[in-house]
Amino acid sequence: MADISTILIVDDEAKMRNLLSMMLERKGYQIDQATDGKDALKKVSAGTYDLVISDIKMPEMDGKELINRMREQNIVTPVVFITAFATVDSAVDMMRQGAADYVTKPFDESKIHIMVERALNLSRIVNENRELKQALEEKQENRQLIYESNSMGGVVDLVKNVASVDTAVLILGESGTGKEIIARHIHYQSQRSRNRFVPVNCAAISSNLVESELFGYEKGSFTGADSRRRGKFEYATGGTLFLDEIGDMPLDSQGKLLRALQEKKFQRVGGNQEIPVDVRIICATNRNLETMVQQNKFRQDLFYRINVFPISIPPLRQRKEDVVPLAMYLMQKFPFGKSHTISEGACRKLNEYPWPGNVRELANVIERCLILTRETQKITSDTLSFLKPNEPAAGGRVIVKLPPGGVQLNHVQFSLVKQALQAAGNNQTTAAKLLGLSRSKLRVLLKNMDGEQ
After folding, report:
1. Furthest-apart CA pair in the chain: how many Å?
2. Which string of DSSP letters, residue by residue, matches 66-77?
3. Please, are residues 163 and 282 in contact by the beta-carbon 8 Å criterion?
4. Which residues, other chains included, contact 119 with Cβ-Cβ below 8 Å and sequence gap of 6+?
5. What whole-number distance in Å separates Cα of residue 171 and Cα of residue 150?
6. 268-to-1, 87, 230, 254, 257 alpha-carbon distances in Å
7. Which residue has the higher pLDDT, 31 or 434?
8. Same structural domain, 103 and 176
9. Does residue 169 sit in the same domain as residue 282?
10. How far apart are CA 313 and CA 188, in angstroms?
11. What pTM value is reported for the model?
């Protein structure tokens, strides 16, 4: 099914906006309106449009300032100007401003449709080129996985086996182990690699917005829905949809996701039209979904649907052989780290550290070291003095000796929370894992900390 183009019409005259809207809606376009440049800039910054048709002279912000502000914000949506008169000089000036085309008043409907189709073709070419460039960069970056351990070698073998078939994959592992990197690698080794890889962090979406984020919504379906919006399923058509932190998805949303996967179609929020699904689903989680199923916190039928081909990524502390190669690779990723070296003592210290935040924590540590050694361009064990290896005792229990004078328990608790956040690079999900808490309980602790400070 072809995508419906969305056009924003900008004019301070309601009569002109409504006339253009009627003309274009008859051709099946989705239309939104703005009363001036300031209103239009707010809309294009918040939403996605395929074309903007704008008057030049308007109060608040005129058409020329609008297109300049759009380009400053790297919004490349083509703009067509409406003008009461046009000379050769004014036409050249409009093109210099960045306009894709212009139309003079009064205009007939046939010329409007020709101009719109021409501008939309330009919009498609711009979007395709941008996405192709991004895909090529990502494909190059994901061409090689950095590892030396046998355990990661086993993971890579599984990735090679499953990449060529359209099977649902569930990637398991602690936060920061590189689950999204593995998902991207599967995508770029698959037959869908020419199309989009669309990541969605289920933990970062509030429960009342999950459905609109995944399936999109129709104009007027709820307060603030000023125009139709495609969801991630539509955006990923032909490609791969990566649902990260799937274990954090609310139960009622899990049912709608299951229906979309089973029936291979869905409806936008507030809509009745059945939209076909053509995406590969890859899910990831740092939680034990089987336990959640037993606790009625995750749907059993959805678990079976997404757990066709599970891949478990070992934490970094269980694959010490990968630490230094990853550190060397991460050094090269920073523009100011390409000439840096790392001493044997620093390598030993990296290997001794337990890496509770896994590869994400390693990346943060390497970036910090590169900044600290910009002059010497050599990372030594002294550079890594801020790393404090403190692995828990057997069985995961930590023995804390009570000082003779006692302690304030809440102060100890707050200190541990801060240390966990620091070790996790301020990632709350990872910090909660380090503390053996759920993300929601950690948020309650942080709220209490703010209240007592």
Report:
1. 89
2. HHHHHHHTT---
3. no
4. 51, 78, 80, 100, 101
5. 18
6. 15, 45, 8, 16, 12
7. 31
8. no
9. yes
10. 19
11. 0.63
Please tell me whether residues 178 and 290 are part of one structural domain.
yes
Our count of domains for the chain comes to 4
Q: How distant, in Å, are the alpha carbons of 401, 402, 408 from that of 405?
A: 12, 8, 10
For the chain, percent of residues with pLDDT exceeding 90: 45
Give the tokens for residue 153: 């070698």
Rounded CA-CA distance 380/120 in Å is: 56
Q: Is residue 126 part of a domain?
A: yes
Taking the C-alpha atoms of residue 230 and residue 253, their distance in angstroms, rounded to an integer, is 17
Final residue before a domain boundary, out of 289, 312, 335: 312
Whether residue 107 lies inside any domain: the answer is yes
Peptide bond into 403 cis (omega under 30): no
User: Under a CB-based contact definition with an 8 Å cutoff, are residues 197 and 243 in contact?
Assistant: no
> pLDDT: is 225 or 117 the higher one?
117
Q: Confirm whether 428 is domain-assigned.
A: yes
User: Last residue of a domain, which of 312, 331, 365?
Assistant: 312
Give the pLDDT of residue 364. Answer: 93
294 φ/ψ angles, rounded to the nearest 5 degrees:
-65, -30
End-to-end CA distance of the chain: 55
Residue 179 lies in a domain: yes
**Range of the structural domain that residue 243 is part of:** 142-312
